[in-house]
Amino acid sequence: MKIEAVDFYYLSIPQVLDVGDGSQDALLVRVRAGDYEGWGECEASPLVSMASWNCPMSHSACKPVSASVLGQKLDDVDDLHRVNRLVRAQSLDLLQADHTLSGVDIALWDLLARAKGAPVFRLLGYQKSFPKLAYASQLFGDDPSITFQRACDVRKAGFRAAKFGWGPYGLGTSQEDADQVEAAREGLGQDGILLVDVGTVWYEDVARAEQRIATLKKCRVGWLEEPFVSGAFKAYHRLAQLAPEVPMAGGEGCHTVHQAINMIDYAGLGYIQIDTGRVGGITSAKQVADYADAKGVRFVNHTFTTHLALSASLQPYAGLEKHDICEYPFAPSSLGRDFTTTKLLPDSQGWVNVPSLPGLGVVPDTAALKPYLQEVEILVGGKTVFRSSTFDPMGGSAPSTGALL
Amino acid sequence: MKIEAVDFYYLSIPQVLDVGDGSQDALLVRVRAGDYEGWGECEASPLVSMASWNCPMSHSACKPVSASVLGQKLDDVDDLHRVNRLVRAQSLDLLQADHTLSGVDIALWDLLARAKGAPVFRLLGYQKSFPKLAYASQLFGDDPSITFQRACDVRKAGFRAAKFGWGPYGLGTSQEDADQVEAAREGLGQDGILLVDVGTVWYEDVARAEQRIATLKKCRVGWLEEPFVSGAFKAYHRLAQLAPEVPMAGGEGCHTVHQAINMIDYAGLGYIQIDTGRVGGITSAKQVADYADAKGVRFVNHTFTTHLALSASLQPYAGLEKHDICEYPFAPSSLGRDFTTTKLLPDSQGWVNVPSLPGLGVVPDTAALKPYLQEVEILVGGKTVFRSSTFDPMGGSAPSTGALL
Fold it and tell me: Cβ–Cβ of A379/B380 closer than 8 Å?
């Protein structure tokens, strides 16, 4: 097979709010090769990733992503690795390319696995998949009573683990933050797994983090996520030494395998969190999972959006039994909910099974997504270099593949 | 003052070639505040950075760059730091934002320094600037005889240092690579400073690098640049141990301060190379220069394009006397040559002085640039969210500032 077409669909709720909910928009990718199609998603900023697909070349190491994808041979897993490396090399100086590649790479795995009649994790070399304990991912409420209520809701919905993050946490006083974490623990119950996400707001200020440690220990917080920006290895490492009872988690911002490897090697992490839609897709996420496993750091997905993204994010560590927890989008926007008809539902004990169907095992519900579709057109020198696709069954009258325009 | 307007100009030669010449296009940025204007440049991929300026918000940490720039107070250096931090926080998940911020940040420093009547380096806290020994940056020829000729040209033009990179180097046999380096040394003369740039083509393969060490030592190569991708810290560190006589250089791909700090801390570098147009502008480059100086690693600019970019790239280490070498675009495209009327010319001994005029001391020659201007328009849902500016003296009838559309 050859990669014949790649289509991009920018989906958004009517009014995106200034809150930390990453499910308000999405960039859906479809690839076609031979008689098959595959679907993936890029995180984040759909318009910018679309622009990188077919932007004019700046020089030999700053080519549009399409230059390394369209027309490439696609018969086996080696081809997926080859295309991934080619994009990295030919778009070395195009920063956004890693996010764009991610969605394309996911769609290519989906396609190839469907063509082989196997789930993606099987193509990744895993004989079987192991269920993951779903943690419900939630935003802190504007005050502790809302956080408490959200934690109660999570428990009632059958989850045994929850993460609270963003919102006001980390921005106010230590006492305000303590009240939030205690409210979450109270609502979740004493036996639940409670995780806390700081969303990088302390930048690299270890002292601010240190002031919160006592409460995090008291509330038996299972990890402290992104107290600092991704690159602040020394701050992470110092805090890990100061608070060995509270493992550090981070890595969602990594957009290359090496960035994740370096966090594992130098930041003292207990958990490496990988967004398959940013790091370079399933190809890159699997490399990180293998490295984490070898180094005794636990791999965990970063997924706040759709069940297509969720399936893609589970495949890279599906066969790693010890890495047994997963982020689960608990309260996504209507777009996140409508994205797929098939859902990856936790069982009565809160475990999620990786789909055993061919490919990713879930497909976007294009009929339901039509109302969310945002038309995009990009012109350079009066000429259209990119136009978004429609959900027309024939692939749309306006393919994203610049070569065809 | 308040930041009132930011305009973007996509400039390109008529036909961009598939070669490693980064001067074939450019993204010029103009900012306006009060009675002043300032100019900067973003590296790389003009269209994609333009898209990130006014893309629709995805969520609270994935806003367009404009959301953190337009309307901001601009009276002193603290404001520049504040705006830089604000962009990083509010565009945390927008990968391309760091490149876009870089050009805007440079233009803001230019503007503020002009308003204060001082060169940028003075605002950075340097009492005086020290000249830098220019190394002429060149591509390896397709065969050694072309490389030899280019090295002769460099010497005849009065340069005492030259770097050769990209082209066929690193892709063929060790012997072919040795012939290239020996040709460069012969053409440059025995007393010249010879530097070699591998352009990351060995990815992280230390063995391939090791096979070239003997020739690099024999030819007294002053540094080996980017043998590996930026994140491959262990490969860099290992090679630095294997070949202490050949210092490692790298860092041009860094798009945050922390990435550069981590390279300094973990990769065993002798030189950290910073592209002010990528790392987050002058604000971020200065932070890296300070850190490098404290750690005994030499800071050097990465500039392959224009003399506006060259001035911007010299300011961050203008006052650091020991850091005394600079990359100098020797054979840029016609666009690179036409960009400014004022040039930063090396003196008879090959030294370049940082301009002492207010701001960056060079301004784009907008009349000469008009033929290179590429019109850009981006539509989402049928509505224009971005339109490139013209060189109309009044700022153009079509400002890039989405807020005004």
Answer: no
**What CATH topology corresponds to B3-118+364-404?**
Enolase-like; domain 1 (3.30.390)
Q: Which pLDDT score, from 0 to 100, does residue B398 have?
A: 38
pLDDT for B96-120, tens place per residue? 999 999 999 999 999 999 999 999 9
Give the C-alpha separation, A147 to A134, whole Å: 19
Phi-psi region of A34 (alpha: psi -120 to 50; beta: other; left: phi over 0): left
Return the ∠ at Cα B300 (arms to B48 and A57), rounded to 5°: 25
Which tokens is A138 given? Answer: 């939630």
Taking CB atoms and an 8 Å limit, are B47 and A99 in contact across chains? no
For chain B, the structural domain boundaries read 3-118+364-404, 123-352
DSSP string covering A27-80:
EEEEEEETTEEEEEEE-S-HHHHHHHHSPPP-BTTB--GGGGTTT-B-SSHHHH
Going by the DSSP 8-state scheme, the letter that residue B33 receives in this structure is E
**Both structure tokens of A52:** 């990188």
Interchain contact A72–B (C-beta under 8 A): no
CATH architecture of A3-121+364-404: 2-Layer Sandwich (3.30)
- Closest by CA to B67, choosing from B59, B79, B78, is B59
Q: Which two tokens stand for residue B237?
A: 């560190």
Q: E strand or H helix at B134, and its extent?
A: strand B132-139
Residues 259-298 on B with a CB inside 8 Å of A are 259, 261-262, 265-266, 278
Under the banding of pLDDT at 50, 70 and 90, the label for residue A403 is very low
pLDDT above 90 (res A227): yes
Residue A18 pLDDT more than 70?
yes
Report the CATH fold assignment for A123-352.
Answer: TIM Barrel (3.20.20)
Nearest to B258 among A93, A96, A229 (CB): A229
User: Distance between CA B47 and CA A51 in Å, rounded?
Assistant: 7
Global pTM?
Answer: 0.96
pLDDT tens readout for residues A288-343: 999 999 999 999 999 999 999 999 999 999 999 999 999 999 989 999 999 999 99
Of residues B48, B258, B278, nearest to A52 (C-beta): B48
Give which of A48, A54, A98, A302 to mutate to test B binding, by max B Cβ within 10 Å.
Answer: A48
Burial of A156 (0-12, 13-18, 19+ CB in 10 A): exposed
pLDDT of residue A397: 35
Strand, helix or coil for residue A232: coil
The pLDDT score that the predictor gives to residue B393 is 61
Chain A contact for B309 (CB, 8 A cutoff): no
Contact A47 B378 (CB under 8 A): yes
Asked if A51 lies within 8 A of B46 by C-beta distance, the reply is: no
Interchain contact, A95 vs B232, CB within 8 Å: no
Do the two domains B3-118+364-404 and B123-352 of this chain adopt the same fold? no
The answer to whether residue A21 neighbours chain B at the CB level (below 8 Å) is yes
Nearest-neighbour CA in chain A from B60: distance (Å): 5
Query: Is A238 near chain B, with CB under 8 Å?
Result: no
CA torsion, ordered B249, B254, B256, B262, to nearest 10 deg: -50
**Which among B309, B335, B208, B324 has a CA at the least distance from the CA of B252?**
B309
Q: Bridge partners of B271?
A: B249, B298
User: What is the residue whose two structure tokens read 């030669």?
Assistant: B13
Min Cα–Cα distance to chain B from A176, Å: 21
Whole-number average pLDDT of chain A: 95
Pairing status of strand A248-250 against strand A271-274: parallel
- The mean-pLDDT minimum among A232-236, A347-351, B332-336, B389-393 falls in B389-393
**B337 has a chain A CB within 8 A of its CB:** no
Cβ-based neighbour number of residue A244 at 10 Å: 10
